[in-house]
């Protein structure tokens, strides 16, 4: 009667990450730094989002050797990214024993129409969302964890803030609605009626929702927690900073004690230079990663 | 009313608080040493044990937690919490709190794809308990005084050593509060004589 890959097992894994920081790493050494700094998981990648943005071209699943090396280096969970809709990349990562797959807009989509049917896999998935409708569709496909899309690789928090506020505002609206208004809202959002009923009764999403896409400082991480994120992903922010070890530790502490402003002030002192940010309006609409997926 | 702390550094804090409240006790989120004052018992939740350990060290919680253990008040660890309580962790030179006489091994059922749920027969609890195991540890061996409460596939997954209760699965991920109730029954009733305090828990 032992069952694997159930919703409870897959969503539960994300519950254990709550209040934590998941860090992008590109090799075993970075993975060890992240683990020592208190990361709750690492995301194994070939290039961090800011390098993907700079280099251009097609971004794919990382070389399995990198992922394998990271898995051997740490005892915390290892996540990895597959392209949106790339069934085989996802199956490869599952076969390798990766703990969580990010069906990610940071990579170049393999399918512009269909996302993965994630409930067919034993391994759990995390997906990006900008609003409640997108969250509903990803959960409907079987995502066990969500994150804001933000605008990856920019070091600019503005889009992650926008997306988290949007999702939470839409949740509050659904909770306040009367039952007879839900079907119309479901049509407007592109969400299923059953999903909205569940959100209304829970008062929140049925899965954990992290912040991602633009977190560059301890204060950014604390801001996302303040706005209601369950935890944070930090991509380029750590290993593109001057002092990754200190940055990583400071972001972990700021996430735990996000309302302790004196502490955040202390741990933000002399951190060195954060990654150089990009103003969103300077990125052509077609190059914004958040527009990938639907 | 019994006052139960939940170590709130990282992990499934909200679920434990909900479960404690559902059992009619007061739940306190513990982030700093001062939060340990006036508690009747403490829960160490599931999460990532390496992360929790780092934060415990950084905020000077290790000694206060060990002192709390010395008072004889009950402590309950689930998954990562069990690892924190254990006297020996396979592959680690030093234990974390090192107060419960068990040896545990981390991630001993495999990676996340091997995580599972299964109904368990638990001593002292009537009927099967639907248990969720996530990258779970197991108890390799127990000390003389430690009672084994549950074995699954020949692995010890729940045990009690005097005031310490530990399990390698996550009762907090289900709506079944019998194990929380069991833990609360380990707390003596003296605090019931005091007037209840308004809940200081707001948000985790």
UniProtKB/TrEMBL annotation, chain A:
Catalysed reaction equations from the record: aldehydo-D-ribose 5-phosphate + D-glyceraldehyde 3-phosphate + L-glutamine = pyridoxal 5'-phosphate + L-glutamate + phosphate + 3 H2O + H(+)
Family statement: Belongs to the PdxS/SNZ family.
GO biological process, one term: amino acid metabolic process
A Pfam family per the record: SOR_SNZ
Domain PdxS/SNZ N-terminal: start-end pairs: 7-212
Gene (UniProt): pdxS
Quaternary data: Homohexamer and homododecamer. In the presence of PdxT, forms a dodecamer of heterodimers.
Protein's pathway: Cofactor biosynthesis; pyridoxal 5'-phosphate biosynthesis
Recorded GO MF terms: pyridoxal 5'-phosphate synthase (glutamine hydrolysing) activity
EC numbers: 4.3.3.6
Protein name in UniProt: Pyridoxal 5'-phosphate synthase subunit PdxS
Tree of life domain: Bacteria
Binding-site positions, D-glyceraldehyde 3-phosphate: 165
Record: active site: 81
From TrEMBL, chain B:
Keyword flag Lyase: yes
GO cellular component: cytosol; glutaminase complex
Active site: 79 (nucleophile), 170 (charge relay system), 172 (charge relay system)
Top-level lineage group: Bacteria
Pathway(s) per entry: Cofactor biosynthesis; pyridoxal 5'-phosphate biosynthesis
MF terms (GO), sorted A to Z: glutaminase activity; pyridoxal 5'-phosphate synthase (glutamine hydrolysing) activity; transferase activity
Entries under PROSITE patterns matching the protein: GATASE_TYPE_1 (PS51273), PDXT_SNO_1 (PS01236), PDXT_SNO_2 (PS51130)
Positions bound to L-glutamine: 47-49, 106, 134-135
NADP as UniProt keyword: no
EC number: 4.3.3.6, 3.5.1.2
A Pfam cross-reference name: SNO
Record keywords, A-Z: Glutamine amidotransferase, Hydrolase, Lyase, Pyridoxal phosphate, Transferase
Catalytic reaction list: aldehydo-D-ribose 5-phosphate + D-glyceraldehyde 3-phosphate + L-glutamine = pyridoxal 5'-phosphate + L-glutamate + phosphate + 3 H2O + H(+); L-glutamine + H2O = L-glutamate + NH4(+)
Any Gene Ontology biological process: pyridoxal phosphate biosynthetic process
Entry similarity comment: Belongs to the glutaminase PdxT/SNO family.
Quaternary structure, from the entry: In the presence of PdxS, forms a dodecamer of heterodimers. Only shows activity in the heterodimer.
PANTHER family xref list: PYRIDOXAL 5'-PHOSPHATE SYNTHASE SUBUNIT SNO, PYRIDOXAL 5'-PHOSPHATE SYNTHASE SUBUNIT SNO1-RELATED
Biological role: Catalyzes the hydrolysis of glutamine to glutamate and ammonia as part of the biosynthesis of pyridoxal 5'-phosphate. The resulting ammonia molecule is channeled to the active site of PdxS.
Stated name of the protein: Pyridoxal 5'-phosphate synthase subunit PdxT
């Amino acid at each position: 009667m032992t069952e694997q890959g159930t919703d409870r097992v897959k969503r539960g894994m994300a519950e254990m990450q709550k209040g934590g920081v998941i860090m992008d790493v590109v090799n075993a050494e970075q993975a060890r730094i992240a683990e020592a700094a208190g990361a709750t998981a690492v995301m194994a990648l070939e290039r961090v989002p800011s390098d993907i943005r700079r280099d251009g071209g097609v971004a794919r699943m990382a070389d399995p050797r990198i992922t394998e090396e990271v898995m051997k280096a740490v005892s915390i969970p290892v996540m990895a990214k597959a392209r949106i809709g790339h069934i085989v990349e996802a199956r490869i990562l599952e076969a390798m024993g990766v703990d969580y797959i990010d069906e990610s807009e940071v990579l170049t989509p393999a399918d512009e129409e269909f996302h993965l049917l994630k409930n067919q896999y034993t391994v759990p998935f995390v997906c990006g969302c900008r609003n409640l409708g997108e969250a509903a569709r990803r959960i409907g496909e079987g995502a066990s964890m969500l994150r804001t899309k933000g605008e990856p690789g920019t070091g600019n928090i503005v889009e992650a803030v926008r997306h988290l506020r949007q999702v939470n505002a839409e949740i509050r609206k659904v909770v306040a609605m009367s039952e007879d208004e839900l079907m119309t809202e479901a049509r407007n959002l592109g969400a299923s009626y059953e999903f909205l009923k569940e959100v209304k009764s829970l008062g929140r999403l049925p899965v954990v929702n992290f912040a991602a896409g633009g977190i560059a400082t301890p204060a950014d991480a604390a801001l996302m927690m303040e706005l209601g994120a369950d935890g944070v992903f930090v991509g380029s922010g750590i290993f593109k900073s001057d002092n990754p070890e200190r940055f990583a530790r400071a972001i972990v502490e700021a996430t735990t004690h996000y309302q302790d402003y004196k502490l955040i002030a202390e741990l933000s002192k002399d951190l060195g230079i954060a990654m150089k940010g990009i103003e969103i309006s300077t990125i052509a609409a077609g190059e914004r990663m958040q527009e990938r997926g639907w | 009313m019994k006052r139960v702390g939940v170590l709130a550094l990282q992990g499934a804090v909200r679920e434990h608080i909900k479960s404690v409240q559902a059992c009619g006790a007061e739940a306190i989120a513990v982030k700093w040493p001062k939060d340990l004052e006036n508690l009747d018992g403490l829960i160490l939740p599931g999460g990532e044990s390496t992360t929790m350990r780092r934060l415990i060290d950084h905020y000077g919680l290790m000694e206060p937690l060990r002192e709390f253990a010395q008072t004889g008040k009950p402590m309950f660890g689930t998954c990562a919490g069990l690892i924190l309580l254990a006297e020996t962790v396979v592959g680690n030179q030093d234990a974390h709190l090192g107060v419960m006489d068990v040896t545990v091994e981390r991630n001993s059922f495999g990676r996340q794809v091997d995580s599972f749920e299964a109904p368990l027969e638990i001593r002292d609890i009537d009927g099967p308990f639907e248990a969720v195991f996530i990258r779970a540890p197991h108890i390799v061996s127990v000390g003389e005084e430690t009672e084994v409460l549950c074995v699954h596939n020949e692995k010890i997954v729940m045990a009690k050593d005097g005031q310490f209760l530990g399990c390698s699965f996550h009762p907090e991920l289900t709506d079944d509060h019998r194990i929380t109730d069991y833990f609360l029954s380990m707390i003596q009733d003296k605090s019931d004589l005091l007037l209840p305090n308004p809940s200081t828990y707001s948000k985790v």
